[in-house]
Amino acid sequence: MAPYVLRRLLVLPVIIFLVTLILFSFMWQLPVELRARIYVPHTNRFLLPSEEAELVERSIRIHGLDRPWPVQYLAWVRSLARGDWGHSPVWQQPVLEGLLQRAPATAELLLASMVPCGLLAISLGSLAARHRGSFPDHIIRAATFLGWAFPSFVLGLILMNVFYAWLGWLPPERLSLWASTVVHSDQFHSYTGLHTVDALLNLDLRVFWDAIRHLILPAICLALAEWALLARIMRSSMLDILRQDYVTTARSKGAPERQVFARHVRRNALLPVISTGGVAISMLVSGVVVIENVFNINGIGRAAADAMASTDIPVAVGFAVFTCAVTVVASLVADLLYAFADPRVRLY
Amino acid sequence: MSRRGELHRRLVHLDLHRHSLRLMGQKLAAGPALSSTDSSSLLYERALRFGKDCSDALRLVGERLNSEDIDACESTVSRVDLAVKRASQAREHTVFAANIWRVIAAVEQFLESIAAKYDYTTLAESPALGGLPVAGIESAPVGPGFGRYGEVVAAELQIGKPVPFPKLRSMRRWRLRRMLRPGLLLGVIIVLAFAVVAIAAPILAPPDGDDPYTMPRASYRIQPQPPGPGHPLGTTERSFDVFHGLVWGTHIAFRIGLSVTIGRALIGVIVGVVAGYYGGWLDAAIMRITDAFLAFPVVPATLVMLAFFSPRGLGRFAAASGVDSIIILSLILFGWMQYARLVRGNVLLERSKQYVEAATTLGARGVHIMWRHILPNVPQGLFVLIASDIGAMVVLAAMFTFLGLSGRTGLADWGWMLNIGRNWIIGTPSNAFQYWYVYLPPIAAIVLFSAGWNLIGDGLRDALDPRVR
User: Fold this and answer.
1) Reported confidence tier of residue A144, pLDDT bands at 50, 70, 90
2) pLDDT of residue A288
3) Which of A217, B93, B134, B375 could cross-link to B32 by cystine, CB 3.0-4.6 Å?
4) Model confidence at B21: pLDDT above 80
5) Which domains does chain B have, with CATH numbers?
6) Residues in A 7-36 with any Cβ partner in B closer than 8 A
7) CA angle B424, B425, B429 (to 5 degrees)
8) How far is B422 from chain A (nearest CA, A)?
């Protein structure tokens, strides 16, 4: 296991290098002044043109924007590593700080989507495979088709129309008004920023339930496409495994069906699901942008969409770096999980 | 080792090859393999290989035989070689299967004739070795729609030469019949319907002025009007005509879907073929680059591209065609990786096959091998991916216009119609669905278009996968 992990970690710098190179090549298309302005702190104070020019000049010198592009690239990567991601004129705060402030909302939504999605995909997919050709199988297959083909934001609009406008059960945003006053009061300690977790840690079940109620619709819309994909893959990989000789052998040796599934089928069928799950993280990050917009959740996706609309270049760059970092880490974790699950990969 | 012991050893070898060949013959009798990535297509190569192994084993046996049996062995060898040659040249599954059975028959008859003399017992077809019943060669099935081997031999003896096999149910016809699946047909009908609407757009919704991609305004009223004369589906906020937007939206949908997918496929095929064929460090480098691009989720990357490039330069196409070419470019740029991986997988699979090795041994050059063997198999699975992708691309494009990041006011695009229709979803307190005509038509259009293409993609995948009925 250790040599595989080591080898996988050694490839990581290469990937990071290539990713930052691609991002830098896009950034390089912008004129120098725009790039320098990324790092100029914007304050409420009105700046004279001369003062502004001086700040821009200083930014150019500090970040080496008048030097050849390899030097620029290194300076940029170094500033990223140091935490200096620029300053957003729209937010009036440093980009990294702003992103981290909005990150918990997105993290909560992603977690609330991923966990049920994964569990449901595995359980329903294996159910469909075990009772192949039966009525539940057809229902699940139809559901996966619809889940994949139906646009998530359209579903969000429809569900909001039904469950909020008409029935009033599941409102948008993160918290109701009374709950958000509780959360922002002094007695409530926000340890993580995730309202559900914090409510549990503060032993406030009413806020917890309110946060869950607000999470249900966005989580469903976000996770549906990924669920469809994973359930389909789980079903087809289980069908493949059930055809294998070792399953027939286990059955003919008299092992109870439950044991056959627990010991042989499930572990092997999970492998394609894990490897696709790593790739599906990027699907979730893509979907979060529009789902946060539809349900008015103040997370990173919403921030990015607003930034693009108002052409906030520092936030655009910061958002790109952020999502790439998240995707790279997630796929690394998925690879390691896969190696943990499949001994053939780490022993070669 | 004694002469007799060596002969027995060689007879056992021959018998094992014959037994394996018989197992394959049974599998071949079930029907043709439909796709070259299926494991049963290895069956053809394996059967040929075992046929040749039988021939070699026969020759080895012949070296140790008594002089009176050498003639029988030689004639068996020539029969086997002829049958193997015919099988390797066969273009029809039935012909291939029949010649394999000829090999089996020849070897079994030979073994039968000399077994008693050399005190050798042939391997019985025991159930443990595959569950095959003990059966004579005469009752062995040759292939679908032709019958038993015994009948073939009887017919050959009658006319004095090999029976010409009729071209029953050729593989191509079978493949085409598999395409007539309900899902696939439904998808094709839906997409064709959209195509008809797109072509007939100037007739169905005559453009007001010279820009068809702007929805005409009846007035400047803010409130949407229900369907009425002149506006079959009513008007949205600010009095844009819904029907016009619906009809001309098909243009944008097809344009984005087709151009993005074709772009992705082109880049993916080139990268995949180069990586797969040349291998080595080039392959490793290209794979690392592909991994790097995979780290960019499509939507955030497109957002960034829009933020960087929209205010300048490339945005000039937006006004003319109603479609933001930056979106197309970035969807291509951050989406070719799946195609490249698929194509590279196909190329690697083809390269490992024996006939490519054989061709190289015979002196074929890279270009020839690429053209004749690799390229015909590159599109395997590509069309399924393309069909599914077209649906997904249009949904993504609708998402970007829904977010307001591309397009302009009044653009005849489904996503844009949803953007302005969004405010009217709540409806009035008395009737939650009062303004259905504002958001339901674009929703229906997006969902149907995406579902149609996905049906085509899934249907193609099921039609080409021989394991699915």
Assistant:
1) very high
2) 92
3) B93
4) yes
5) 3-156 (no CATH), 178-296+334-464 (1.10.3720)
6) 11, 14-15, 18-19, 21-22, 26-27, 29-30
7) 85
8) 8
